Amino acid sequence: MTSDLDIDPNEPTYCKCHQVSYGEMIACDNEDCAIEWFHYSCVGLVGPPKGKWYCEDCQALMNKKNKKK
């Protein structure tokens, strides 16, 4: 029996939760981000941020690089 809730196993997953695309999503502004797209709810957003937005992993990498300088 097929239902509307069946998920295509070939559909790509996103975010740190490894789920399919749904609802509002945001892209990390780091072009080399390993994950790239995140669900608002998973990263604590309720609306679009002003300016650039970086995920926790990319923020940590940038902070680490800046400390080495």
UniProtKB/TrEMBL annotation:
GO BP: any one term: chromatin organization
InterPro entries: ING_fam (IPR028651), Zinc_finger_PHD-type_CS (IPR019786), Znf_FYVE_PHD (IPR011011), Znf_PHD (IPR001965), Znf_PHD-finger (IPR019787), Znf_RING/FYVE/PHD (IPR013083)
Claim: NADP is one of the keywords in the record: no
Species of the source: Anaeromyces robustus
Presence of keyword Transcription regulation: no
Ligand binding (Zn(2+) 2): 28, 33, 55, 58
Signal peptide: none
Membrane-spanning ranges: none
GO cellular component term of the entry, any: nucleus
Entry protein name: PHD-type domain-containing protein
Taxon lineage: Eukaryota, Fungi, Fungi incertae sedis, Chytridiomycota, Chytridiomycota incertae sedis
